[in-house]
Amino acid sequence: MLYPDQFGRDPLFPKHSDFAVVFKDELAGRGVIAYRAFAKGDVIARMAGHVVSEIRQHTLQLTPDTHLFDPYFSGFFLHSCSPNISLNMVELTVTALQDIPANSFLYMDYAETEDVLFKQFPCSCGAPNCRSWITGRKEIHNAAMAQPEMLNLNQAMR
């Protein structure tokens, strides 16, 4: 199991034989790779972690005031505007949105679960429907504030 024993022994918890958190590249950092194939509609894993009251990197929103801090598995799902997984934050399950071949990274849409992100960022997913800038579902695009060099450039042009 990827989760420590303190979370119990749920048979749906991710197993080392099925998943790993690995380094993808300099841009994305670490992500979850599935070592085996999953069919569209499969519940592929259950999530666990620590419930915290603040947004952190690697948290997923449970309610407007609580977040799941999961530094073992789901906190490392990568973003795509065309994801291959969906998260149920009530049942804490992960479902395949499409067939997922073995040795594929797991991608979620961060706006599916988050009202506000820990940090907005430019998207490089390459999907035809790419939003270019990733925010939580209740946030406005804040590229200039997230990239001080853009703010300085805009001020210099005035």
Please give the count of helices: 2
Instruction: Count structural domains.
Output: 1
Strand-residue fraction? 25-35%
Low-confidence stretches: 148-158
CATH architecture designation: Beta Complex
Structural class: mainly beta
Fourth CATH level, the homologous superfamily:
SET domain
Large-scale geometry? globular
CATH topology: Beta-clip-like
Query: Quick one: how many beta strands?
Result: 13
Major β-sheet strand ordering: 1-2-10
Arithmetic mean of pLDDT: 91
> What is the rounded Rg?
17 Å
Distance between the termini: 56 Å
Q: How much helix, percentage-wise, in residues?
A: under 10%
Query: What characterizes the major β-sheet?
Result: 3 strands, antiparallel
CATH domain class name: Mainly Beta
From N to C, what is the helix and strand string?
Answer: EEEEEEEEEEEEEHH
Overview of the structural elements:
By secondary structure, this protein is mostly beta strands. It has a single domain, classed as Beta-clip-like, CATH 2.170.270. 8% of the residues lie in helices and 30% in strands. The protein has 2 helices and 13 strands. The strands form 5 sheets. The chain has a 3-stranded antiparallel sheet, with no helix packed on it. The chain has a 3-stranded antiparallel sheet with strand order 3-9-8, with no helix packed on it. The chain has a 3-stranded antiparallel sheet with strand order 4-6-5, with no helix packed on it. A hairpin with a 4-residue loop joins β8 and β9. The radius of gyration is 17 Å and the shape is globular. The C terminus is likely disordered.
